[in-house]
């Protein structure tokens, strides 16, 4: 465990920054990991779901394991031990926690996938925590030989599209939770002032998620210009002023009466430039590489558990009518690619969405 603390003290040629609080937190994290494996998994192994990984949550978790293997191997080769600890332990722990939440409290985790996670993580942190890894390898996993001679775990090619789709799902759940709290809080404040409340009772509340799978309007023009102004060999763009000038000219021809929102365009421009420099020209496509409607539709059970209410996908333009008195909110904050809009309405139990 002492090596774990040293690995987290920093990379490169700078002096190590060994912090006792960090050391204590690392020891606590490893202790909790041991307890989880012994009590929650191995002691209740028969309650785990059998068969090959098949659900959306299974595939996401399996993909996260593959990504951790690749990134951790690269970090070790580059002698970036803090980065290796982040990718091979902390990020993998976070992926495990997300998987547990996605599977729910009814023990729906996949048996083979969980055991593979335990195997992989033990091998990934062996160079940093050899005693811990050997204990898990021999005593808990009942493996023969030593983990130090077990070799590096194999991995499939990571699916970066699936990684992006899952981030979109998790970010959307956070957004919906914030919008729900904001809408309910606004209704309660209105009630205190004597105004009519439109978002009660909560037990009949249902969510409508509005999705626009393609950028349109000024964002579409901006992306089309950026595609022409992006050099894929050097990963460089033409000057911002050149892109903005062309965008302004196009918008003034289309909507001469409207004001050009320079700051809003610059914010979007910078965000997409950074993405393109990171993952390439695909970041400038008008559509995301996954189906925005399919992702929430295939994870409605998870969204329901997270929000505590039913949520329905509203992809048809006529679905705006279903938001009732909140229809204006859809106009004020229309959905765009990667940014859904959620509205919460009261409804009768027998009403169909």
**Radius of gyration, in angstroms, nearest whole number:** 25 Å
CATH architecture type of the largest domain: Orthogonal Bundle
**CATH topology term of the largest domain:** Isoleucyl-tRNA Synthetase, Domain 1
Structural class by secondary-structure content: mainly alpha
Count of distinct structural domains: 3
Reported for the largest beta sheet, the result is: 3 strands, mixed
Q: What is the CATH domain class of the largest domain?
A: Mainly Alpha
**Helix and strand pattern:** HHHHHHHEHEEHHHHEHE
Strand content: 5-15%
Q: What shape does the CA trace take?
A: globular
| Distance linking N and C termini | 54 Å
Taking strands numbered 1, 2, ... along the chain, how are they ordered across the largest sheet?
4-1-5
Number of H/I helices? 13
Q: In CATH, what is the homologous superfamily of the largest domain?
A: Isoleucyl-tRNA Synthetase, Domain 1
Provide the helix percentage: 40-55%
């Amino acid at each position: 465990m002492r090596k774990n603390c040293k690995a987290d003290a920093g990379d490169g040629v700078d002096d190590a920054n060994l912090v006792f609080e960090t050391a204590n937190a690392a020891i606590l994290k490893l202790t909790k990991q041991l307890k989880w494996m012994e009590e929650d998994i191995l002691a209740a192994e028969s309650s785990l779901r059998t068969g090959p990984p098949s659900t959306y949550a299974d595939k996401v978790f399996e993909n996260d394991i593959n990504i951790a293997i690749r990134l951790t191997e690269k970090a070790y080769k580059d002698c970036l031990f803090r980065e290796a600890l982040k990718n091979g332990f902390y990020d993998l722990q976070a992926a495990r926690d997300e998987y547990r939440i996605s599977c729910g409290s009814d023990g729906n985790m996949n048996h083979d996938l969980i055991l593979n996670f335990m195997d992989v993580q033990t091998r990934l942190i062996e160079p940093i925590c050899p005693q811990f890894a050997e204990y898990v390898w021999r005593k808990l996993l009942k493996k023969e030989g030593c983990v130090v001679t077990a070799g590096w775990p194999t991995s499939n090619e990571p699916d970066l599209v699936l990684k992006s789709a899952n981030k979109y799902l998790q970010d959307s759940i956070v957004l919906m939770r914030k919008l729900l709290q904001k809408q309910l809080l606004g209704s309660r404040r209105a009630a205190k002032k004597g105004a009519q409340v439109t978002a009660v009772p909560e037990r009949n509340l249902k969510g409508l998620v509005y999705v626009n799978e393609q950028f349109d309007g000024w964002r579409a023009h901006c992306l089309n210009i950026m595609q022409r102004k992006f050099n894929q060999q050097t990963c460089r763009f033409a000057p911002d002023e050149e892109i903005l000038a062309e965008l302004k000219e196009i918008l003034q021809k289309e909507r001469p009466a409207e004001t050009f929102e320079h700051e809003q365009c610059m914010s979007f421009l910078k965000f997409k430039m950074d993405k393109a420099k990171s993952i390439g020209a695909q970041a400038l496509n008008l559509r995301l590489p996954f189906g925005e409607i399919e992702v929430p539709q295939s994870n409605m059970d998870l969204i329901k558990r997270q929000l505590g209410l039913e949520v329905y996908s509203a992809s048809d333009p006529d679905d705006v009518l279903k938001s009732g008195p909140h229809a204006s909110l859809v106009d004020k904050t229309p959905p765009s690619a990667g940014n859904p809009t959620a509205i919460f309405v009261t409804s009768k139990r027998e009403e169909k969405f």
